[in-house]
Specification:
InterPro entries: Inhibitor_vert_lysozyme_sf (IPR036501). By secondary structure, the protein is an alpha+beta fold. It has helices at about 10-15, 25-30, 35-40, 125-130, 195-200, 200-210, 215-220, 285-300, and strands spanning about 40-45, 55, 60-65, 70-80, 90-95, 105, 115-120, 135-140, 175, 180-185, 230-235, 235-245, 250-260, 265-270, 275-280. The protein has two domains: about 5-140, no CATH class; about 175-300, 3-Layer(aba) Sandwich (Inhibitor of vertebrate lysozyme, Ivy), CATH 3.40.1420. It contains eight helices and 15 strands.
Length: about 300
Amino acid sequence: MRTHHLAAVALAALGAALPRLALAMDEASLERFKPEEMGGDWVPAGSRCDSPLRIRIDAKTTTLINGRDTQTFRNGELFNLSGNFLLSNSFNLVPDVAQNLPWSITFNVDEKPGLTQIEYLHNSDLQRRFPLHKKDLLRCTGTTGLPTPAGPPNRPTFPSINTLPDGPPTPPERCPDGGTLELIGTEPWGGLPWYFHEHVPEVKAIATRVAGREEPWVLNFDGPSGFNRLYRKANTEIVVFDACRPHDCQNSFLWGAYDRTHRRYALILSEAGRERRIGEHTEEIDAAIACARKDEERYHVTH
């Protein structure tokens, strides 16, 4: 029972786990591609536009260049990392490959127009030949001179939109401790975690008390997140949720639970491989989170 948007999973893990992530660029991706913003040559920030090290992008292909050494890939999907095109200006481009994504290119990194980065995922040879891993890239409008500087952060101001699971309801899954886990299909508890945090006053109050001093994404859930799930055991009902930091899902993410029977709230924050536990952890809450995490691991193995 896996319900994340594509971007809610670290790209590196996806590249290894899925038999085929990228498809030849579909009509929707082609519509999102803006030649005047994404196309052309991209050089490292601080370099001139005649730099031998660059990336050349058009609607159909991406070419890595280092002097006479070049490698061209056919473009695959162009998608929004947050899973919601109203909440983020950033786009990710991945190549059309059968497995093990070699790279992902992010346009408008950290919501800064004109700032681009490439992240190598499964190909150390590319890193050696084209040393651009996670370096800031700027777009050239000519063959000489300096590239166009990046603009200030520009996050859209559209209202957030809740998304509910589609399709018929799925039966609850059995947890190792005897509880069950299932998707929540109706608001305010169903959908994405930001929604019930915002629309259930008791949750908003307790979450602010527990996580008010954490970084904004922990409290606001403005990064990628999965659908909320309900854990049941005996007379206890616990809403389980997860989210990650925008543009850094691989290193910064959280698992959380709200025990709506006993009004308890707890989070497990994972940052750079280290976990922190905050809030009121109980045996039931930890079992609910553990069940959801086990379900997550099973997804990567079976899908």
